[in-house]
Amino acid sequence: MLEDDTELADVLIQYLSKFNISVRNFEDPYLALSAIALEDFDLIILDLTLPGMDGLEVCKELVTKYDIPIIISSARSDITDKVIALELGADDYLPKPYDPRELEVRIKTILRRFNKNISKDAEEQKELFVLDEEKQEITKAGKFIKFTAAEFQIMSLMCKRKGFVVSRYDILDSCDLFNSDEDSGSIAVIINRIRHKIENNPKNPRHFLTIRGMGYKLVE
């Protein structure tokens, strides 16, 4: 992976490791190109905004020298960048922000297309918390959890942004049952109720974490 956002890289590395997908990240494109020349990699996740060298130039060099599939991961909104990247030979383009689950699925799809090995453990690995938006249900390890409407809205948001920090503002902005700062105090109460439903020890949560000064994070 070539990604200079170390926080994002850490989240993706941690998430993908659950599916036995091992990831090394390089912030410096020159170091990355040196490593790729010496080692075998199954796939490259490439950010376009990198220090010292534009991601499109990196993409061009990779396509010219190596037969390695490339997923572009970029916050650039210019459609021209996407077109150029795909014309250069990138295999996929994933605009930021995105759900790590989508990256995982795209990695597996591309590796299958390139006949790369994916362990059965990675294929069979299931997520602990699963949101079914159509049924309006959330399960933990396959077991249905009954939530109130407010609990469900918060937990749904956390499932969609699993592994990322969600601020109180994000909750107020995304959950229509909370429509003002006056409701902010009740968020902590509801999260405490959620923890009693999903945690083995609500006083020492392992999954629904408080990130001091920033918000909350759902991890597995």
Describe this entry's structure for a reader:
The chain has nine helices and eight strands. Helix content is 44%, strand content 14%. The protein is elongated, with a radius of gyration of 20 Å. The two termini are 22 Å apart. The strands form three sheets. A three-stranded parallel β-sheet has the order 1-2-3, with helices on both faces. A three-stranded antiparallel β-sheet has the order 4-5-6, covered by helices on one side. It has a two-stranded antiparallel ribbon with strand order 7-8. With 220 residues, it is an alpha/beta fold. Helix 4 (79-88) links the parallel strand 2 and strand 3. The protein has two domains: 6-124, Response regulator (Rossmann fold), CATH 3.40.50; 129-218, Arc Repressor Mutant, subunit A (Orthogonal Bundle), CATH 1.10.10. Keywords: DNA-binding, Phosphoprotein, Transcription, Transcription regulation, Two-component regulatory system. Residues 120-220 bind DNA. Residues 1-111 form the Response regulatory domain.
Structural key phrases:
three-stranded parallel sheet, Rossmann fold, phosphorelay response regulator activity, elongated, 220 residues, Arc Repressor Mutant, subunit A, transcription regulation, WH-like_DNA-bd_sf
What are the SSEs and their pairings?
Blueprint: H1 6-17, H2 29-38, E1 44-46, H3 55-65, E2 70-74, H4 79-88, E3 92-95, H5 100-113, H6 120-124, E4 129-132, E5 137-140, E6 143-144, H7 149-160, H8 168-174, H9 184-198, E7 208-211, E8 215-218
Parallel strand pairs: 1-2, 2-3
Antiparallel strand pairs: 4-5, 5-6, 7-8
Helix pairs in contact: 3-4, 7-9
